[in-house]
UniProtKB/TrEMBL annotation:
Name of this chain's protein: Negative elongation factor complex member B
Region (Disordered), start-end ranges: 550-610, 639-709, 731-756
Biased composition (Polar residues): 654-663
PANTHER family, alphabetized: NEGATIVE ELONGATION FACTOR B, NEGATIVE ELONGATION FACTOR COMPLEX MEMBER B
Database matches in Pfam families: COBRA1
GO cellular component, one term: cytoplasm
Amino acid sequence: MFAGLQDLGVANGEDLKETLTNCTEPLKAIEQFQTENGVLLPSLQSALPFLDLHGTPRLEFHQSVFDELRDKLLERVSAIATEGKAEERYKKLEDLLEKSFSLVKMPSLQPVVMCVMKHLPKVPEKKLKLVMADKELYRACAVEVKRQIWQDNQALFGDEVSPLLKQYIVEKESALFSTELSVLHNFFSPSPKTRRQGEVVQRLTRMVGRNVKLYDMVLQFLRTLFLRTRNVHYCTLRAELLMSLHDLDVGDICSVDPCHKFTWCLDACIRERFVDSKRARELQGFLDGVKKGQEQVLGDLSMILCDPFAINTLSLSTVRHLQELVGQELLPRDSPDLLLLLRLLALGQGAWDMIDSQVFKEPKMEVELVTRFLPTLMSFVVDDHAFNVDQKLPAEEKAPVSYPSALPETFTKFLQEQRVACEVGLYYVLHITKQRNKNALLRLLPGLVETFSDLAFGDIFLHLLTGNLALLADEFALEDFCSSLFDGFLLTASPRKENVQRHVLRLLLHLHHRVAPSKLEALQKALEPTGQSGEAVKELYSQLGEKLEQLDRRKPSPAQATETPALELPLPSDPSPAQGRPPRMPGAIREGRPTLQPDTRSRPGRSSSFSSLGLLFHVTTCPWWGEIRLHVTPRLPCPQHSPNAGDTQKESLSEPTDTTARSSGLPEEKRKAEPPLSWGQGPCGIPGLPSWKCQSGGPHSSDTSQPPRPLSFLAGLIRCLVSALSVGRRARLQREPRRSHQPPAPSFTHTSVWAP
């Protein structure tokens, strides 16, 4: 541990051991050793006894001094690395490294040695080999030192990069199989700059630094893995690494990468999710600018275009251009921007074949793709517009037109034989699904069963499709829709493709409560994992089973449904008021509950009234105290329908009692003009049921053919309360100057509802 101290002429533990072994007086030997190897400060010798009096050990004191000196030394080394001319400072650092390298295995001084090596642009080869041979020293050295080791040792660099590449692929796949289904938050939602802030991209950027040789090694690793696995996420990492170096303004690498400006322009298009005319011309200029003898650049360009984020942007732009051409009544061959998008798509889709064959040449554009397939897609757009316009016509002008269900054979053939056509067709399916166009989706689903290289069952397409299907959640209750989607498309590949099974389970986890029970049971049996299924499928299936059990527990059993009595409102069976008994209150006002007693206090204010459900409601406000009173009284018997109506009843209708008069809160002349309300045998012919019509058709009368709506009571109450609150607020504002003359606070009664 302290072996390096002997090379510098500093005594260590072995020297002390030898001294104590050969001495005759150990105490004097220890004191002499302390004097020779302690801090050589004359003033310190007299201060150390004070530390002894405070019980501070000498080891703690010397350790604190050592740490402070080491920090000062680290700061000085960093300052030397930035001061003066390059040759002078590097010469100082090399001399310091030569003197201190023998202490590199001493843990307390190792940071100083590593700091010196970090600031040296070229560490001596001999010392690099010593560091590489010792695993502990290799792990402890800075990444700047490791770069010098990696550039001459590709295998060691590959061992460092390989775990990061695996982690990157796992993160991308976990994002594709996320249980969250959303159109706004899917795999393509993060912006390019946000994606470049990921852990893997940042660590790779730091490992590469400004070293062009290491950058070429990383690109070679990505090409090799892309050829071996056909995983397009390596193409994404290739573009993200270059743009991450661009963000850090690493000109040493960006200036030598011929794909830098092309990737920069394409990154802007991905950020906007659209390729406009200006950027399309720039991209075309880069492709046309590839000179003879530099055709290998097309391999890197095709790999960058094979990035799923680039394919997504190009495909969305293609579908958008097709819709614009329909509105402009133009053919696809008349649009240069559309032809360029197809050219870029073809170059990106052919990346693997180009790198594998080492034939760096743009794939030839199929003429029928432009002259037959794209017009077929445009005809689908026209069919949708025609059907939507027909549905908006008036009933007398609308003809019995059904949505076209026939699928042209040429469309299915193109999906099976041409990769670019298949990609554009799949994104058109995603487009109509996002537009909630169920008819168009059911029309095109049969054509997706067999596609080029089973692209329709790829993770990226199924991820986007399941997210868009969440917008059609209400359609899953229909048997024909579920049969076409699951039986006619998804389940056809479920047994042989585990990823399809995972995506279907993701969809059902989100929409299981919308699917018909009979269909849900059949799907659960069809998706049951086998012994060869992976743990991810089993976990998703287990989660689906738990969801279905929770759904079953929420539903009432058939026995409970039959035993539950129907909600019936009891009808008043009391005699009419003419026989000497007051009518019973329907609804919540019954015998045995607190009786609403009118308040006999008289105060100036405003009152409002309305009737509903056989009751008369009066709301009275007092502006001085902000009091709101609610009085409820039953409707009085109607002489037109009551069989026992007589003179006594007429008198009671025309002359209300003092209690009723006081509770109404209305002026005397208004109360006399108020028509009496009826209670008795209503228009329905049931005795005792409150009628919905007053005797003379006054302000409370309503149509006898329609019962009052349940919400009329709430609406009337809200109107009265709002009116009362506004009056109370104005009154408080008026009395603000004379706050000292406020009357005492009133007392509460059963009939009062107070609102400050």
